[in-house]
């Protein structure tokens, strides 16, 4: 049974990568035609994924985990088949012109996988600004190092544990589903407002992880109820997801196709390496038993993001550049 589960997980682990790469290239192509459509599409995908995965899927998984793994695997297979059918049908709705002419879909997929596993043009690592792959890596650290560990610590063991965990998943998922809607509206505005929004999100992440850290320290010293840590970790987790969503969408909108193609492999690779390292660090530190150290790391990671967003800026949008040129001509 264990061996079969390992083989199954290894087999299906490649599917999210293929789906994410397809979405990234699709939305970048779409962004070259209409940036507003790219925002709207990314928002719909994010909200739908969060509601189905975090609000419904994880909460039900927490409740049914004690009934056996077969239920979860069966539901996973059925829903995966449904996703394949729906994605195949969606291709007929809109298929933007691909960046490389006369290239078959098979060749396009092979090129995307090569760029992911063997990224080139390392120059994009140092001149990407807030869209740099390193920003995605830093953003991944906080969510990976806390992950489900802190939620398991808050929910605790015993009969009430699965119910508490399910409720936490619903609350985290609900807030996480609302923030992309706000992000989408803000990204349609001036670049300065987008940067201010990212700074606010990073500060909320610091406050969220910091407050959860304080509760964890008070629990170890005074034995207060761990549920007091729930608001902080809910806010921190949701804002972290909103930062990742916003930066990813801005990358799809702002970068021309060749530059996006060169950068996206580094984005996925660095984020994956940072997430893998952070997850193993959390496991080694026994985050489920005592999350103090991982919360310190998450707070530091959020602080790094706040500093990056405070010092960084977005390229001006075409309409903003035109307005600037008009103002300069008037002043002259």
UniProtKB/TrEMBL annotation:
Q: What is this protein called?
A: Hypothetical membrane protein
Does the keyword section mention Plastid?
no
User: Any stretches that span the bilayer, and where are they?
Assistant: 65-86, 131-154, 166-186, 198-222, 228-250, 262-285, 291-309
What InterPro entries does the record tag this protein with?
MFS_trans_sf
Keywords, in A-Z order: Membrane, Transmembrane, Transmembrane helix
Presence of the UniProt keyword Chaperone in the record: no
The record lists the organism as: Glutamicibacter arilaitensis (strain DSM 16368 / CIP 108037 / IAM 15318 / JCM 13566 / NCIMB 14258 / Re117)
